[in-house]
Amino acid sequence: MRIGDVAQRAGVSTRALRYYEEQGLLGSERTSTGQRTYTESAIERVQLIQQFFTAGLPSRTILQLLPCVESGHASPEVFEVLEEERRRITAAMADLAAARDALDRMIDITRNPTPEHCPSLR
Amino acid sequence: MRIGDVAQRAGVSTRALRYYEEQGLLGSERTSTGQRTYTESAIERVQLIQQFFTAGLPSRTILQLLPCVESGHASPEVFEVLEEERRRITAAMADLAAARDALDRMIDITRNPTPEHCPSLR
DNA sequence: CTTGCCCTTGACGTCAACGTCAACGTTTAG
DNA sequence: CTAAACGTTGACGTTGACGTCAAGGGCAAG
To answer: Which of B49, B66, B96, B104 best probes binding to A when mutated, by most A CB atoms within 10 angstroms?
Structure first.
């Protein structure tokens, strides 16, 4: 597969794929003329990378974790990274829940306006 | 209160407070010599602003929502913004949950390594 | 052959919420 | 009074995951 196919099937831009390669997150073979070639497994890998990016992991951290996906083994340091990121994500979910609740209170108030609305915003 | 007090009590930098004012998110009185003065309610307001920033809302959107906190009323457009952001946050929480689950699978595998680990990563 | 779409590298642009530094005025504790 | 600590505006720097040209080469169809 060429880069455009992978991009379309994985739902990312070709620029993103080259960026992933630049960061060491995604490998590729080259044809004799220098064009990138990918296997089917690249699509799955890109989707996993995207999932981690969406969760707020920086590329350096993803770079640490990806080898563990392939080897099925993690050094103690990488294991600590795994658990640290898990904690980060859990905290982020709590923050989102808090903000969502704040929005819910605002939505509720704007639907049933009361003279004494201010205290209930806290 | 001066800006340093608000910063400390709200847990943000003075630079952030000036930025909020610049963006129209936070008002202040001025002394005769030009120094900013805040009321107690500023702290609560800053914390709400922070909560929204943490949830990924941009300052322009927060600027739309804040008047609704004070007035207790929302125009139809602002109301739509409220619900749209609620949907965004809900989706973001789902993404985080998915990434957390991926991490959990990796953690599980690195704890009990199996020869057939690869399929369970999907 | 040439048209049109795909690919390459390289390099600069973006966006947002601040950090940081400069140069200077203000308030406060001793 | 004076020095430390705090305040002001202005402006440039940071960070990360790409977007977006630019300039050129590769490849199947008609």
So the answer is: B96
3-state DSSP assignment of residue A30:
strand
Q: Which element (helix H / strand E) includes A77? A: helix A76-111
Say if CB B51 and CB A106 are below 8 A apart. no
Residue B29: its H or E element: strand B29-30
B51, B72, B95 member nearest A102 (Cβ)? B51
- Flag whether pLDDT at B64 surpasses 80: yes
What is the reported pLDDT for A112? Answer: 78
Q: Collect all residues with Cβ–Cβ distance below 8 Å to B14 and sequence separation of at least 6.
A: B3, B4, B7
| B interface with A, Cβ–Cβ below 8 Å | 44, 48, 51-52, 54-55, 57, 65, 68-69, 72-74, 78-79, 82-83, 85-86, 89-90, 92-93, 95-100, 102-104, 106-107, 109-110, 113-114, 117-118, 121-122
* pLDDT over threshold 80, residue A54: yes
